[in-house]
Amino acid sequence: MAELFLLSRTQMRRIEPFFPRSRGLLRVDDRRVISGIVYVIRHGLQWRDAPRGYGPHKTLYNRFVRWSRLGVFERIFAALVAKAGEPDRLMIDATHLKAHRTAASLLKKGVLRAVSDEPRAA
Questions:
Q1: pLDDT of residue 98
Q2: What is the DSSP string of the chain?
Q3: Tens-binned pLDDT, residue by residue, of the chain (122 aa)
Q4: Cα–Cα distance between 50 and 33 in angstroms, integer?
Q5: pTM of the prediction?
Q6: From CA 112, how far away is CA 30, in angstroms rounded?
Q7: Are 70 and 20 in contact (CB under 8 A)?
Q8: What is the pLDDT of residue 89?
Q9: Where are the domains positioned within the chain?
Q10: With the C-alpha atoms ordered 92, 98, 102, 107, is the resulting torsion angle positive or negative?
Q11: b/e per residue, 8-19, with b = 16+ CB within 10 A?
């Protein structure tokens, strides 16, 4: 099995202050679990497809859901963004944009010209 992606100790020190306090029981290794969550999200995997080295997929999922509801990840991202300063460039990911259902009829009505100049089938 290839090396697992793990957050560095420096990265962990930066985000640890935002973790909720443990309630009696010791938590599973935060570094391993958070790294597993990042790995799953970065690669667009389902939780059950996470490499076994990160621990049980149910642990990754439960921690992600619980901490998301508590706003832990939102506070981490807000703090990291605030510390980073003004960005040099902004990018928009358009893979999730949806067209309104009437957008398909704009070509038929002549509002937009066709991208291709080839004759269209009737």
A1: 65
A2: -PPPP---HHHHHHHGGGSPPP-SSPPS-HHHHHHHHHHHHHHT--GGGS-GGG--HHHHHHHHHHHHHHTHHHHHHHHHHHHH-S-S-----GGG----GGGGGHHHHTSS--S--SPPP-
A3: 468 999 999 999 999 999 998 888 888 899 999 999 999 999 999 999 999 999 999 999 999 999 999 999 999 999 998 888 888 888 877 666 666 666 666 666 665 565 555 666 65
A4: 11
A5: 0.69
A6: 53
A7: yes
A8: 86
A9: 9-87
A10: positive
A11: eeeeeeebeebb
For residue 120 the two structure tokens come to 């269209």
Q: Which two tokens stand for residue 23?
A: 């309630």
The residue with tokens 């980073």 is 84
Instruction: Pull the structure tokens for residue 92.
Output: 């928009």
